Amino acid sequence: MPKIVTTEQMRAIERAADARGHTYAAMMEHAGRAVAERVKQLLAGIEQPRVAVLVGPGNNGGDGLVVARLAHQHGYHVDCLIAARRDELSPDCAARLAEAESAGVEPLFVGDEQYHEKLECVGCRDLIVDALLGTGARGEVQGPIREAIEAINASGAPVVAVDLPSGIHCDTGEELGESVWACRTVTFGLPKPFLFQGIGMEHAGKWSVDPIGFPRPLLEQHTDAFLLDDAWVGSQLPDRMRSSHKGDSGRLLIVAGSSRYPGAAVLAARGALRAGAGLVTVASVPSVCAAVSAQLPEACVLPLPEDDGAIAEEAAERIASHGHFDAAVFGPGLTPSPSVARMLAKLWMLWQGPAVLDADALNLVARGEVAVPSGPCVLTPHPGEMARLMGASTAEVQNGRFQFAREAAKRFGKAIVLKGAFTVAAEEGEPLLVNPTGNPGMACAGMGDVLSGVIGAMLAQQMPELSAAACGAYWHGLAGDLLLERLGSFGFLASELADALPLARATILSRCGLDPSS
User: Average pLDDT of 237-258?
Assistant: First the structure.
């Protein structure tokens, strides 16, 4: 799996590469060439393109000066605007400036007469290259750098960011007062945390990771976060023997639904069945059981006593004595009523198997009305639920998704799935696993219910909690991506995503060279 590295980890790799003879100058040349190639692709078909390259005083500016030199040599009209004085440039940036000037680039510095006139006109260019600030930026941007960022954002021109959009904190994705909106970000070596959290994930636009010549052993050193891929997920997904029967494929209990939210239980069960659970039993109030039977004849039902449309307290003993289950899902559509809280408190004292906690089960935990079960668990909060669990705001969670996932895993001692764009799976003592699949078309009701069923099905098939959490998120997101390709980004339903799960599994296995029929 590709590693995700922090600023300090990336600096350590760069220092080690420099010590091995792959100099900072060589890294800048590679980086600039990678960006210049992307620029060339974006400007294909435009005659005599006009490009503005905005440069800062550090090494990120050095990368930009390589882009300016190569664009000039390719015949583009290049405006090179340096948001600093000449004597403020770092030594490596100054060296790249000398090379650019020798090639014919004519830079303008912040104090030059035409600098501000050119800055105000960057919107007249076909493309802007943002090379103002690099991964080491900290503190609120000010002065000429902020002025340049504001000009970029006001321009309306497409922007390619070098390594990261200027004004974004590399390790958190937070905005440092003002930041560039890029349509494309070219980052180098390995992915960085800003791509997956905070406003950075929005401002980066479409992104790619380009190599800049790091020796492979340096890229294989320890990290505390990975980006999931087909190969790892495909190696983890459960398969079946020829002699398998339904009992071998996992018996899953789903305690979900209420008279107000019958669909949540249906969707969780649908996700579990489509994810290969052999036997799925929905335990809920009679109206929910009727809805499940009508829509999913493959599922079993366990009607329970109810209290004002929700599962009653006395249902706990009936569930616990019903039979053997390999795993359970608790929460979708339950409602956080007092009777449900008392029911879960009793049931969880008796439940020892693996479980997924979602939705109202999490809300009751957050309110302190019930403690998490003692057995293996996967908690699946969306950002609002995570905020309630951790006593924070949703904005704080979104600006620190990695941090909150780690802290929740430590606080509860369970695996965590922090849902949303780039879902994060965490377990104490293990690297974070970040999911790249999924799309905005999945921003509709019921998607989380399906995911809880998918993860529950994998727990029922004996997968470890973190593997089930991460693979479930990846598989679920890929099913959404397949629907996006077929239907577009609006209007597909959670039930349709559940039905796309078998094809998504086959796609994962095919991509990594495994037999999809297994």
Answer: 81
Q: Tell me the average pLDDT across 298-325.
A: 95
Q: Of 336, 386, 264, 282, which Cα lies nearest the Cα of 345?
A: 336
Instruction: Report helix, strand or coil for 6.
Output: coil
Would you call 281 helix, strand, or coil by DSSP?
Answer: strand
User: What whole-number distance in Å separates Cα of residue 456 and Cα of residue 250?
Assistant: 9
What's the burial of 40, exposed, middle or buried (CB within 10 Å: 0-12/13-18/19+)?
middle
Between vectors from CA 261 to CA 259 and to CA 267, what angle results, nearest 5°? Answer: 125
Q: Are 57 and 93 in contact (CB under 8 A)?
A: yes
Query: What is the tens place of the pLDDT at every residue in 155-173?
Result: 999 999 999 999 999 999 9
Residue 428 sits in a domain whose CATH number is 3.40.1190.20
Position 272, amino acid: A
Q: Residue 231 domain-assigned?
A: no
pTM, to two decimals: 0.93
State the DSSP string of 149-166: HHHHHHH---EEEESS-T
Q: With H, G, I as helix, E, B as strand and everything else as coil, classify residue 432.
A: strand
Q: How far apart are the first and last CA of the chain?
A: 23
451/84 Cα distance (integer angstroms): 50
Structural domain boundaries enclosing 251: 242-511
Higher pLDDT, 359 or 239: 359
For 216, half-sphere exposure in the C-beta direction (CA atoms, 13 angstrom radius) is: 0
User: Residue 378 pairs with which residues in a beta bridge?
Assistant: 356, 415
Q: Find the mean pLDDT for residues 379-403.
A: 96
Q: What is the pLDDT of residues 117-144, one digit of tens each?
A: 999 999 999 999 999 999 988 899 999 9
Return the C-alpha torsion angle 198, 362, 373, 320, nearest 10.
Answer: -140
Report how far residue 262's alpha carbon sits from residue 227's, in angstroms, rounded to the nearest whole number.
35
283 and 427 assigned to the same domain: yes
Q: What is the mean pLDDT of residues 193-220?
A: 92
Q: Give the whole-angstrom CA distance, residue 421 versus residue 442.
A: 10
Contact between 165 and 197 under an 8 Å Cβ cutoff? The reply is no
233 is a domain residue: no
Q: Calculate ∠ Cα 132-138-141, nearest 5°.
A: 55
Q: What pLDDT does 45 receive?
A: 87
Write the DSSP assignment of 206-275 as a string of letters. Answer: EEEEE-----HHHHTS--SEEE--HHHHHHHS----TT--GGGG-EEEEE---SS-HHHHHHHHHHHHHT
Selection from 437, 328, 451 nearest residue 381 by Cα: 451
Same domain, 257 and 175: no
